[in-house]
Write a sequence for this structure.
């Protein structure tokens, strides 16, 4: 059972890294970016190409995946997204769905439609056995990396100037502008960073979640659940929501295989009925 | 003191002009029905356009008139489709029109139950909830393979003749006439509804829910009502699909279907009832054309269309169609409105 | 004196801030009651509590003796307590004709009528036009609310409330933001309100308050500070101190 807990935590933390960028974008700009999964997919494919075709070591490919997705995110933000910020939520939904379709078809065209796997180095395959608990090496790596990232995120937000600018801009962008904070750059950099994180998550997750062109569509609901259940006014909210989701999904599929996927949807619907603003957010009313 | 009769007359004239049948509308429906006789070789695609138009109409009711953004409208569509298919396959209800009505009612029931979920929360919450319900149903249909045929779809469905008289054929002749008639009847009802006081209250709820409740409107009750009706319409559209293709599969619940539907409605424009129908026509022909060009990658072009529409601006696109409508509706009451203003200022 | 609207120990707390502090207010039937106070005194909060937009932390609200504390906003409107908003809350895409028409048809219980065409009841249209006449809106009867000048919008705001035939009307700064040349229309409309309607008026403009009100309550920091006839309140040194303090702060 502890193995399941361990697997669930790994899954949850992976989800968190993937979804954190979306949480920040939503909280920051009140922008619903359904195409967030496309950036994750991009990172995943970059890693696949680097590791499988170019022989780059797996661990070295991770930062590159991060950078690639961050750059794509930055470029798209400055060229396309910036025109859609002021539009209605419906427009944002339509726009980002359009981007998803385009990215899915593009990935299909470039990479083919079958699922691809990363050639994970031997050192990361298999598992340790600690007093009867199977600790998968790969999953351990995920937990370590994601854990470090979470701590780093919290640190950046709480203790750096960029972090305080970001928090100011989230709280009230008009006032932040009035204080001289260049809100546009904060948005752009944050969007890029969030996309980069998604890319990193995609790279890490390719092995566990499976990578194919429909990735953004398959996992869209998961990211959205993390963000809605966890709320967008903190880091801890989505973090806890991801853990709950990860453990719930893994445990659900193991213990009640016939109903496995329902666990997630049911959790989501129940939470949304009970607390529409999310389990962990302040009473946000946008 | 009663206001002058001319003022009342002008007001009545203006209000009834809102609901008056425009010449273009009559042309549209005449053309649609004429196609039964004049375009027999296109009946298959016209049948698809008919139920897709009905599906988009149902989304217009909640999105265009009540302001609810739904990413999971396919839930009701799919439920209607499977209900109709199962009713026919297991010979529970053999007559298609009866089965259609039952499917609509089942979908309405689901709509009523889930309507409470879309009342609370932000746009994002509504997106989530509607998407979640559709995915849930898809998963359910997947698991209950013994009932639904699972991933292969429901096979072995035979549809008996409509009203016992009109047999379904391979070329879509009966199918088109059937779908068009259903669409027209439901359209008439919807048209009546949106031009009624209830319809006006929906528009007020969409525009300013705070103000609506401040004049005594129970926002929740109105939203539940329209969501339920729209679910019924979507269910009937799904049933039409099942009945005209004798098949139902998991993808009736898919996200693709809900997303495509949004596009269909947006192309035509939301909020004036014909947007879904016009959008269905444009979308189907676009799909036909593109899937010949790039059979595998046509979602790319669909996505591109969506992106371009948003960047150009939905208002700008629908504004290309509104002048035509405006001209027709403006002819009568503008002049009268100026007269009432003149008579008013005379007395003050 | 019959009491039309009454609050009993009304309290509203927002995570540490007390917006309404034990407000016990009695408004007589047919009164022209003004509520004044410095900015942030909790006047709009009180209106929100009275109309059900916000729920009180504790306390009760009675309308004609009936406890309405648990009722929702739209239920209270049906019972006869209607408000206007300080910042216009109108239906931007509807015309005044449609807006007033909606309010009247809702009041008549025809709001759920989904089969009749709007405007097919002549008596309803007559009433709508009559209201529009009273508020000088007949020259813009067919214009979208969004394009109306601000003064007209403000008149529409009041007209919509009147269309609901309220027993108690809560006016939240009706002249706020209205340019000078359009103010007199607003004031005339307020002065011409039917005498059987109880009116609670929130205002900053003292000229309006003293010419309109027969009773004034002063709200400071969420609590009732002073209450009495206009002469009593005008002479009260405590009121002067509160406002003088604010004027000094502004200067």
């Amino acid at each position: 059972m502890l193995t399941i807990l361990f697997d669930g935590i790994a899954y949850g933390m992976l989800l968190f890294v993937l979804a954190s960028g979306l949480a920040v974008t939503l909280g920051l700009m009140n922008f619903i970016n359904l195409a967030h999964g496309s950036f994750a997919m991009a990172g995943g494919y970059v890693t696949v190409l680097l590791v499988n075709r170019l022989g780059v070591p797996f661990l070295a490919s991770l930062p590159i995946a991060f950078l690639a997705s961050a750059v794509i995110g930055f470029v798209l933000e400055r060229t396309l997204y910036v025109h859609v910020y002021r539009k209605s939520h419906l427009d944002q939904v339509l726009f980002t769905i359009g981007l998803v379709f385009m990215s899915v078809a593009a990935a299909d065209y470039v990479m083919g439609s079958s699922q691809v796997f990363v050639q994970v180095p031997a050192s990361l395959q298999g598992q340790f056995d600690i007093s009867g608990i199977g600790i998968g090496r790969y999953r351990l790596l995920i937990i370590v990396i994601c854990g470090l990232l979470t701590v780093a995120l919290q640190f950046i937000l709480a203790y750096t100037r960029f972090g305080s600018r970001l928090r100011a801009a989230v709280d009230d962008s008009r006032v932040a502008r009035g204080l001289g904070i260049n809100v546009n750059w904060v948005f752009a950099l944050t969007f890029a960073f969030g996309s980069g994180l998604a890319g990193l998550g995609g790279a890490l997750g390719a092995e566990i979640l499976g990578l194919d062109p429909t990735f953004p569509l398959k996992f869209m609901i998961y990211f959205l659940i993390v963000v809605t259940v966890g709320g967008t006014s903190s880091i801890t909210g989505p973090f806890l929501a991801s853990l709950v989701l990860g453990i719930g999904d893994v445990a659900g599929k193991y213990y009640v295989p016939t109903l496995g996927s329902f666990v997630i949807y049911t959790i989501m619907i129940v939470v949304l009925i009970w607390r529409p603003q999310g389990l962990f957010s302040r009473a946000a009313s946008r | 003191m009663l206001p002058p009769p001319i003022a009342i007359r002008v007001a009545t004239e203006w209000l009834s002009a809102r609901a008056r049948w425009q010449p273009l509308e009559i042309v549209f429906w005449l053309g649609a029905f004429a196609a039964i006789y004049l375009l027999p070789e296109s009946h298959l695609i016209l049948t698809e356009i008919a139920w897709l138009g009905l599906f988009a109409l149902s989304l217009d009711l909640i999105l265009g008139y009540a302001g609810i953004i739904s990413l999971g409208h396919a839930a009701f569509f799919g439920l209607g489709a499977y209900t109709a298919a199962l009713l026919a396959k297991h010979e529970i209800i053999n007559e298609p029109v009866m089965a259609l009505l039952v499917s609509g009612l089942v979908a309405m029931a689901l709509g009523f139950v889930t309507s409470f979920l879309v009342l609370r929360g932000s746009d994002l919450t509504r997106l989530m909830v509607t998407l979640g319900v559709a995915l849930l149903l898809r998963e359910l249909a997947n698991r209950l393979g013994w009932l639904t045929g699972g991933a292969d779809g429901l096979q072995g469905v035979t549809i008996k003749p409509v009203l016992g008289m009109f047999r379904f054929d391979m070329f879509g002749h009966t199918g088109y006439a059937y779908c068009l008639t259903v669409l027209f009847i439901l359209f008439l009802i919807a048209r009546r509804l949106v031009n009624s006081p209830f319809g006006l209250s929906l528009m007020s709820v969409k525009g300013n829910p705070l103000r609506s409740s401040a004049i005594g409107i129970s926002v929740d009750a109105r939203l539940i009502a329209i969501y339920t009706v729209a679910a019924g319409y979507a269910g009937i559209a799904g049933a039409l699909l099942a009945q005209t293709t004798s098949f139902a599969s998991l993808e009736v619940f898919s996200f693709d279907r809900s997303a495509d539907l949004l596009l269909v409605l947006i192309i035509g424009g939301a909020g004036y009832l014909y947007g879904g129908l016009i959008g269905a026509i444009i979308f189907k022909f676009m799909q036909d054309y593109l899937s010949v060009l790039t059979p595998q990658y046509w979602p790319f072009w669909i996505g591109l269309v969506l992106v371009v529409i948003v960047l150009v601006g939905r208002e700008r696109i629908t504004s290309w169609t509104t002048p035509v409508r405006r001209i027709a509706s403006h002819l009568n009451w503008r002049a009268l409105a100026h007269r009432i203003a003149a008579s008013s200022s005379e007395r003050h | 004196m019959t009491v039309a609207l009454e609050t009993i120990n009304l309290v509203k707390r927002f995570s540490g801030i007390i917006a309404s502090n034990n407000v016990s207010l009695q408004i007589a039937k047919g009164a022209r009651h003004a509520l004044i106070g410095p900015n942030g005194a909790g006047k709009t909060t009180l209106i929100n509590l009275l109309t059900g937009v916000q729920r009180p932390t504790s306390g009760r609200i009675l309308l004609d003796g009936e406890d309405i504390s648990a009722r929702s906003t739209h239920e209270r409107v049906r019972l006869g307590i209607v408000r206007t908003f300080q910042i216009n809350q109108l239906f931007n895409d509807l015309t005044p004709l449609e807006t007033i028409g909606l309010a009247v048809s809702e009041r008549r219980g025809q709001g759920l009528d989904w089969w009749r065409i709007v405007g097919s009841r002549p008596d309803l249209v007559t009433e709508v036009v009559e209201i529009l006449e009273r508020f000088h809106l007949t020259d813009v009867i067919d214009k979208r609310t969004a394009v109306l000048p601000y003064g007209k919008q403000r008149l529409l705001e009041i007209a919509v409330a009147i269309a609901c035939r309220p027993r108690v009307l809560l006016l939240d700064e009706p002249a706020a933001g209205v340019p000078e040349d359009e103010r007199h229309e607003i004031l005339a409309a307020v002065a011409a309100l039917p005498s059987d309607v109880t009116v609670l008026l929130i205002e900053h403009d003292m000229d309006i308050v003293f010419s309109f009100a027969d009773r004034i309550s002063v709200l400071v920091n969420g609590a009732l500070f002073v209450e009495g006839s206009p002469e009593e309140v005008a002479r009260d040194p405590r009121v002067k101190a509160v406002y003088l303090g604010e004027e000094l702060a502004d200067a």
Summary: Chain B touches chain C through 43 residues (CB under 8 Å).
